[in-house]
């Protein structure tokens, strides 16, 4: 075992030794970044009653935020593939997604209907599809489900203003290995990020920052599943713009946001990559302005520490806003600009993993992958 570890380390060093790689690592890892202060702007409050809501998607018409929440104890002690916690537990794991009703400041647990009682339901990323014209009362809700028997994508139907999720189907495929986040583009088609190539080399992948993650497209109409973007360093959040013509992917160890154009055959064409210099987590798009909000971590080494020691201190957070560049350098082809709009050392929420915004209601919701509660902030912080 020790010999293997030594060989892996040497290999990692050999692969690692290139100048840009090292300077990027130093930037993303935040080694020289000063300590982050606690946020004290007074425009955030914590809403208790939920745990580990890693992903949040706001349905703007109703003001309902759909949240993939879970159980902090299970995720830190029992079983959770996204942080490499793989055990032989036989415990049935059932987590509960929630709606946070922004207008009424209320949490509503969602009940699963028609879902096999013997199956695990362990959440990570989620996505929502809506066909408002033809099915005005219905949403399709997609979840990455990390079952003990292997990870899958679950598709549910939700009738607006009910508290139910009715299970429609499970998509299991050899190419869907370590699904992190999912973005549906119709009720039968989605893109999913595989954050790593296999479960077992996860930590190794992260440390040497190898680009072994990918994006997979699945269609239940044509029954195809294929890799449409490859060579990504820990692709994490994935989302799309309003008409699903663009797909955005954040990379945690790459420190980048990749911007793809979606082709008519569903393949992705990389049109831009924006190095934001922070470890990017989940993404969300402001539906009115098209701006992209990224939850990012200032000290990703703290995330690695957490993979090894679940009692390590929380990661300080940042929210980055990416806008169309309006400054002078846009004439040199720099299409996007980015800035940090929120920073906190973990005093509000530990380890923020998602920032979802609702401009109509001037609200930004923050979720965390460890710890309890969500934060509700004013958007004009
Ligand atoms: C954030 O910083 C404040 C003030 O420096 C400190 O009291 C607090 O413990 C820090 N919180 C975390 C989670 O590190
Ligand atoms: C939806 C999504 O991308 N979830 C990720 C959010 O960030 C946490 C922390 O890095 C990941 O573990 C989740 O998988």
UniProtKB/TrEMBL annotation:
* Gene3D superfamilies on file: TolB, C-terminal domain
Q: How is the cofactor bound?
A: Binds 2 calcium ions per subunit.
Q: Which residues cross the membrane?
A: none
- InterPro entries noted in UniProt: 6-blade_b-propeller_TolB-like, Arylesterase, Serum_paraoxonase/arylesterase
Keyword Hydrolase, does the record have it? yes
One protein family per Pfam: Arylesterase
Is Membrane there in the keyword field? Answer: no
Q: Which cofactor does it need?
A: Ca(2+)
| Protein family | Belongs to the paraoxonase family.
| Record-given protein name | Arylesterase-domain-containing protein
């Amino acid at each position: 075992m020790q010999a293997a570890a030594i060989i892996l380390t040497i290999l990692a060093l050999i692969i690692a030794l290139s100048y840009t790689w090292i300077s990027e690592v130093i930037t993303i890892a935040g080694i020289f970044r000063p300590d982050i202060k606690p946020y004290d702007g007074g425009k955030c409050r914590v809403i208790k009653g939920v745990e580990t809501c890693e992903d949040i998607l706001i349905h703007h018409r109703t003001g309902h935020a759909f949240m993939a929440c879970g159980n902090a104890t299970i995720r830190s002690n029992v079983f959770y593939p996204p942080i490499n916690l793989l055990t032989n537990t036989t415990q049935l794991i059932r987590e509960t997604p929630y709606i946070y009703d922004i207008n009424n400041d209320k949490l509503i647990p969602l009940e699963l209907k028609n879902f096999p009682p013997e199956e695990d339901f362990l959440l990570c990323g989620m996505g929502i599809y809506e066909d408002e014209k033809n099915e005005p009362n219905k949403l399709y809700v997609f979840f990455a489900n990390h079952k003990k028997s292997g990870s899958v994508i679950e598709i549910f139907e939700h009738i607006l203003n009910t508290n139910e999720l009715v299970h429609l189907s499970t998509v299991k495929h050899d190419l869907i290995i370590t699904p992190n986040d999912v973005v549906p583009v119709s009720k039968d088609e989605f893109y999913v990020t595989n954050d790593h190539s296999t479960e077992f080399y996860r930590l190794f992948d992260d440390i040497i920052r190898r680009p072994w993650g990918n994006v997979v497209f699945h269609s239940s109409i044509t029954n195809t599943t294929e890799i449409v973007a490859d060579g990504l360093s820990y692709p994490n959040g994935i989302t799309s713009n309003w008409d699903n013509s663009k797909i955005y992917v954040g990379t945690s160890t790459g420190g980048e946001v990749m911007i793809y154009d979606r082709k008519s055959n569903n393949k992705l064409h990389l049109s831009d990559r924006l190095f934001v210099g922070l470890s990017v987590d989940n993404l969300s798009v402001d539906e009115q302005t098209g701006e992209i909000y990224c939850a990012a971590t200032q000290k990703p080494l703290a995330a690695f520490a957490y993979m090894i020691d679940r009692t390590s201190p929380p990661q300080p957070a940042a929210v980055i806003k990416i806008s169309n560049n309006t400054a002078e350098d846009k004439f040199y082809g720099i299409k996007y600009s980015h800035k940090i709009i929120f920073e906190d050392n973990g005093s509000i929420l530990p380890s923020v993993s998602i920032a979802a915004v609702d401009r109509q209601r001037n609200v930004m919701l923050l979720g965390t992958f460890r710890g309890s509660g969500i934060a509700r902030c004013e958007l004009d912080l």
